[in-house]
Design goal:
This protein is mostly helical and 631 residues long. 72% of the residues lie in helices and 3% in strands. The chain has three domains: 210 residues, no CATH class; 271 residues, no CATH class; 32 residues. Helix 3 packs antiparallel against helix 4, helix 8 runs parallel beside helix 13 and helix 15 runs antiparallel to helix 20. It is globular.
């Protein structure tokens, strides 16, 4: 571990990276709420400065063999110490570059997409708040500091998802995301408290260190790892807390690109990678990660098979790909999981931003309606989205092929063949639903189709704004094409220094070919059902109405949660609390007040003020005294 001083350029760059977006947020909210152009320029300049700082840190410390740490005591109580500062190592240097780079491109894109929106300045303020929270999360040297910004990321995402709060669906989606992620965060906080009590600090270097953790038995390590994984499940929308993410599409499309590619939902996978040596101490915890990732990947893939909302299809694919990342990490593939997180950031941002161009121009989210309105004639977004879909499907030579095959190799190294089988099935389904969407837009249907399923974010706007939207598409497409060839340099970069970060991958040569073959089979099947002329354009799942409806209703998870809320919370806990309030709390108060009134009435007789009453009382007392003494 390398310590630095406050005068070191590294310190200044690490401080400026989160401070610039925070300053932009404060300036916009306090000074420039009524100046949309100034707000946008200020926010973009701030995040661009953060990107420059990230690149400087990456170049300066990319080959460091030990983490660079700056910390100062924040809270001290007896043997417990909680520091504040920052830490730089290969993982968070990579993640910092991804977060600032994607944030910068999304904000530039938003100049065109959000042009003319009444909340334009407020939008950029929220974007800056989100960038500050996410950058600070990545740089945190301790889990306590990470948890603080983990919650601030949740707050910022709530504001962005519910940005158009005048729509009931948007405000409800924001609240749903906020509440469901809090369920996982409660488990995360409990895990932190256990570590703090038994270890005395929450420093990441201590938890990931080669030395055994004092005061923590293997069973306790497993418990803590599973509790922290609860936070990962909530933040990364994994089973069973996965239904909030598709509803989060109610926010503006650039927000979806930001949340899905490299920031909020990726924070969960980043946390698992951040604590990978700690999680590796528990075989049970790693198996649970692998199982949850597998279930989430398959469930989300089936949901995407039947959706017609272009943003929801990419949302389901995000859940699925995050599940792939967890599968890779859970199988011991540290580099595989992080590499797929990197490539996914580029092609998923590309897919959402391309979708935003169609929605912006045509005013609908429905892929069929986009195809009928001539979306295929919009050459730049359709070409870029096709290339992004190819990367998502894992087709060579796109970046997704290299990272996904690395995960499949990690799964092949497991003794149970179930994991690899599930991964290969996921590769087939991913390719199928990705190109189902592409062919629905590219190929004009031969007959009338049904009514569009969903209204888009915007009505069409003037064309000159599309220039700002085109620049990020070209950059992200380039990254999607070239990132896959960075596999070996990234492997060396991530594992040059670090305890327990060597991938457990299988050397079988057939695995990449099997994955590629199944991906091609998915594309071919999608073409046969949706790409050919004069076909009914009905998928193999949609030919089974009961199954299609089951997937369309998200495996009835929302219905299950609604029933639990109604029966357990509303009709159970709420009624019990109401009964306790009426009979115990109110009953005690009413009984006390009634007794007080009765006693006061009795005592009031003594103070009635009539001579007859007082003489009667005196006479009665004298008679009683006489009887007592003389009888």
């Amino acid at each position: 571990m390398t310590l630095i001083s406050m005068m070191d350029p590294t310190f200044l760059a690490a401080i400026l990276s989160p401070a610039l977006p925070l300053s932009a947020f404060a300036a916009i909210m306090l000074l420039f709420r009524q100046c949309p152009r100034v707000s946008a320029r200020l926010s973009i300049a701030a995040v661009t400065g953060s990107l420059m700082c990230a690149l400087f840190l990456l170049i300066r410390h990319g080959d460091a063999l030990t983490p660079v740490v700056f910390s100062r005591p924040w809270m001290i109580s007896d043997a417990i110490q909680i520091p504040i500062g920052f830490m730089l190592d290969p993982l968070n240097l990579l993640m910092l570059t991804i977060v600032t780079g994607i944030s910068c491109l999304v904000q530039i894109y938003s100049l065109g997409y959000m042009a003319g929106d009444p909340g334009f300045a407020r939008y950029y303020a929220y974007m800056s708040l989100f960038a500050w929270a996410m950058i600070s999360l990545v740089l945190a040297p301790s889990l306590f500091q990470l948890y603080v910004f983990w919650e601030l990321v949740g707050l910022a995402s709530y504001l962005l998802i519910g940005f158009w709060f005048e729509k009931f669906s948007a405000s409800r989606a924001g609240k749903k995301a906020f509440v469901m992620t809090r369920l996982g965060d409660a488990a995360f906080l409990l895990g932190l408290m256990i570590i703090l009590v038994h270890v005395g600090n929450l420093e990441i270097t201590t938890l990931n260190g080669p030395e055994p953790l004092p005061g923590m038995s293997p069973g306790l390590i497993t418990l803590v790892a599973l509790l922290i994984f609860g936070g990962i499940i909530g933040k990364s929308a994994q089973f069973p807390l996965l239904t909030w993410l598709p509803d989060a599409m109610e926010g503006p499309t650039p927000v979806s690109a930001l949340l899905h590619s490299a920031t909020m939902v990726a924070a969960g996978v980043y946390l698992l990678a951040r604590l990978f040596p700690f999680f590796s101490l528990s075989t049970t915890a790693m198996t649970v990660c692998l199982a949850v990732g597998t279930i989430s990947m398959l469930m989300a893939s089936t949901m995407a098979l039947v959706s017609r909302d272009i943003k929801q299809v990419w949302a389901y694919s995000t859940i699925s790909q995050l599940g792939f990342m967890l599968m890779g990490l859970g199988a011991g593939g540290y580099v595989a999981g992080v590499f797929h997180l990197t490539t996914h950031a580029a092609f998923k941002a590309l897919l959402f931003l391309c979708s935003g161009v169609f929605i912006h121009a045509l005013g609908t989210n429905d892929m069929v309606a986009i195809g009928q309105a001539g979306g295929r004639r919009m050459r730049l977004p359709i070409v870029c989205m096709t290339l992004g879909a190819a990367s998502l499907a894992g087709l060579p030579p796109f970046s997704g092929f290299f990272s996904k095959e690395l995960i499949l190799s990690a799964l092949a190294g497991q003794t149970n063949p179930l994991w690899l089988t599930a991964g290969l099935a996921g590769a087939f389904l991913t390719a199928y639903y990705a190109f189902r969407l592409i062919f629905m837009i590219l190929i004009q249907p031969s007959g009338p189709d049904s009514k569009p399923a969903h209204t888009g974010d915007h009505h069409p706007r003037d064309r000159h704004s599309e220039t700002w939207m085109a620049i990020p598409l070209v950059i992200l497409t380039t990254l999607t094409l070239v990132l896959g060839f960075a596999e070996h340099p990234l492997d060396r970069f991530l594992t040059a220094a670090g305890h327990g970060l060597v991938d457990a991958v299988d050397g079988s040569t057939w695995v990449p070919y099997a994955g590629m073959g199944l991906a091609l089979a998915g594309v071919v099947l999608a073409w046969m059902e949706f790409g050919r002329a004069n076909v009914p354009r009905i998928g193999f799942v949609e030919r089974l109405p009961a199954v299609a409806n089951f997937f369309r209703e998200r495996w009835y998870l929302d219905h299950l949660y609604q029933n639990i809320l109604e029966r357990v919370v509303d009709n159970g806990l709420a009624r019990l609390c109401a009964k306790n309030d009426d009979q115990v709390i109110d009953g005690a108060i009413h009984g006390l007040s009634s007794a007080t009134v009765s006693v006061s009435r009795m005592l009031g007789i003594l103070q009635a003020g009539t001579i007859q009453s007082r003489l009667l009382i005196i006479f009665t007392v004298l008679v009683l005294l006489a009887l007592y003494f003389f009888v």
